[in-house]
Design goal:
binds zinc ion; single chain; 2 strands
Length: 65
Amino acid sequence: MAKIVACPNCGASSEWSPANRFRPFCSERCKMTDLGAWATERYRVPVVESDESELPDEGDNVLPN
Ligand SMILES: [Zn+2]
């Protein structure tokens, strides 16, 4: 029988089995929600270091009008 675990996101019973692709979460939604919270809240990364030559913020402000 499959082991039942509590979904870390909503606390609902979730089946820990190969059939449950989102384990230990109960659903894809809970998995994505948790990953989102993890990415934005608990795991604050300093701004990436690759925005040096990508922003053309100096130079002409020619707008097609
Ligand atoms: Zn859930």
